[in-house]
TrEMBL record:
Regions annotated as coiled coil: none
High-level lineage: Eukaryota, Viridiplantae, Streptophyta, Embryophyta, Tracheophyta
A GO CC annotation given for this chain: endoplasmic reticulum membrane
Gene Ontology terms describing biological process: protein retention in ER lumen; protein transport; vesicle-mediated transport
Principal localisation: endoplasmic reticulum
Protein name: ER lumen protein retaining receptor
């Protein structure tokens, strides 16, 4: 019975693998649109999507905490990605506190607290297992462009200019904060299960956050963009959400393929090997 169920899945996977890149991109876009339609029909209050994104991110962090606490190793994890995450969460927490102060503020505080704990464990308690040479993306190369862009393009709301710039900075930084982690996976050639689960959770959280913004724009018939300000800022907000979703989309695709197919090791086109503990 189990083998019979897997045959259509394997046939579909083989068919997808044979398709040219343009077809794969087209199918990915169609799938994303279909998912947005389903979400819009099922979820009535689209603000809940942002809360769901934060919850999924928290689950991913919980997986990391479990890994660090039980396996006593941080091998395969990017300290720089965690530091970038802490930076944008700190910036977003500040903006949320001075601009809104709602449930999002509490969620950001909880996520920031756990992220800081992960950083502490990696820097001190488990530093001997940290792969310094593999985590070779410079934080400055990520932070400085985001900071410069936030000085040029930021919201034009009624808030103080400093708060506007910090808001823009955290949006831009969040969209690229996972790049060092992806680089570590490329350098190590092995992605162990807990790290894979964490990165997949990030991908799901990014998609939910992106869906939240897109559906909010649709529901308000574009008025949300006007509320965010004028100029390039509204477009860059949506672009940042889309960019961070597509950065992780490729990994999430192969992650799901590995889990569904029950493969122990999967080599990705980027050179990353996903090592997954699946039951065959």
């Amino acid at each position: 019975m189990k083998g019979t169920m897997r045959r259509p899945i394997q046939a579909l996977r083989s068919w997808l693998r044979r398709q040219p890149p343009r077809v794969k991109v087209f199918l990915a876009v169609v799938s994303a649109i279909a998912a947005l339609v389903v979400i819009r029909m099922v979820v009535y209050d689209h603000d809940n999507l942002f809360i769901a994104a934060e919850a999924v991110h928290a689950v991913g962090i919980s997986v990391l905490i479990y890994k660090l606490a039980t396996e006593k190793t941080c091998a395969g994890l990017s300290l720089k990605s965690q530091e970038l995450t802490a930076i944008f969460l700190g910036a977003r927490l500040y903006c949320s506190y001075v601009m809104e102060y709602d449930v999002h503020t509490l969620l950001d505080l909880a996520t920031l607290t756990t992220t800081v704990w992960v950083i502490y464990m990696m820097r001190f308690n488990l530093n001997s297992s940290y792969m310094h040479e593999k985590d070779n993306v410079s934080v400055l190369y990520v932070v400085i462009p985001c900071a410069l862009l936030s000085l040029v393009v930021h919201p034009t709301t009624q808030h103080y200019i400093v708060n506007q710039i910090i808001w823009a900075f955290c949006v831009y930084l969040e969209s690229v904060s996972v790049l060092p982690q992806l680089r570590v996976m490329q350098n190590t050639k092995i992605v162990e299960p807990f790290t894979a689960h964490y990165v997949f959770a990030l991908g799901v959280a990014r998609f939910l956050s992106c869906a939240h913004w897109i559906l909010q724009v649709i529901d308000t018939r574009g008025r949300l963009l006007t509320a965010l300000g004028y100029g390039m800022w509204p477009s860059l907000v949506l672009l940042s959400e889309i960019v961070q979703t597509f950065i992780l989309a490729d990994f999430c695709y192969y992650y799901v393929q590995s889990v569904v197919g029950g493969r122990l090791v999967l080599r990705l086109p980027s050179g990353v090997i996903l090592q997954e503990e699946c039951n065959t």
